[in-house]
Amino acid sequence: MKLIYVVIDGMGDRPIPELGGKTTLEAANTPHMDSLAKAGKTGLMYTVGKGLAPESDVAVVSILGYDPFKYHVRRGVLESIGACLHMENGDLALRCNLATLAVDNTIVDRRAGRDLTQQEANGLTRAINDQLRLESYPATAELKSTSTYRVSLVVKSENSDLSDNIDNTDPAYKRVNGIGVADLDASMVLKRCNPLEQTEDAENSAKIINEFTQKSMVILDNHEINKKRVKDGKLKANVLLCRDAGSIVPQFPFLCDKYDLSFVCLSDMNVERGISRLVGMSLVDLPAPSKDLEYDCKLRVKKLLQVLPDHDCFYVHIKGPD
Questions:
Q1: Does the residue 277 lie in any domain?
Q2: Which of 1, 65, 78, 196 is most buried, by CB atoms within 10 Å?
Q3: Which residue has the higher pLDDT, 219 or 1?
Q4: What's the whole-number average pLDDT of the chain?
Q5: Of 224, 246, 268, which closes a domain?
Q6: Residue 223 belongs to what domain range?
Q7: Given 246, 270, 294, which residue is the final one in a domain?
């Protein structure tokens, strides 16, 4: 028997007047999903808790059967590991967005128009890696664009350990009992990073992120890639919004040991790749969603069928709808 676990990220929607009051899923022609629903069981679940809109890392950890409050889940760490950045306990890992900031510190677009190419993102992050030097505290920083505007940041201290008890500079997310959730009432203004505890490590970590944010803004604002984007009528990617700091690599019990089954993950996002490595799943990398939905779906089915004989359980994460 095989278990195929398909997570369609962001498929939930609200009724739309143009669709006669239906959601997009209700209006879509889904004969295969309909047949599965009729032959199986359906239900609802809260991945973390009622009224909380968790980030992807927390939700995925939860639906795989782990308690996100127990295992020190931080998206910055999971994405960095998924991106193959070297990260150890005491380092500081954050998830960042290349975004657009106005002169009054208002965030115009958290994703720089969603039209940043991978080549542009690589050029901007490379410039920061080459030019930025931290002076407020003896530490080094490394950036990597994981998928266009999505960026991972790892900071390594040359002295003491760094602390993840610091606030986000990205106002769209906040921490509730230590886990990242969407802040639905947020004001879209760039935040200053503040320590969340009165310790020297937390104060130093916040100081580093504030220095990094300000210095990277200068590099980004003056970069030829952004000058060309403005000339072409596009938004600048002139700020890095940081969130979900982590300084501890979570230690999950391996799924294969827990259930005595072989697991494999098929995903195109680094947070799921990071989780799969930490829970002991084999990994099949998928390309990011293209504009050709039929091609994307067929490719994922093809990849699944290729590994189907070799494993028992298959976690397929589809990010496109989100």
A1: yes
A2: 78
A3: 219
A4: 92
A5: 246
A6: 75-246
A7: 246
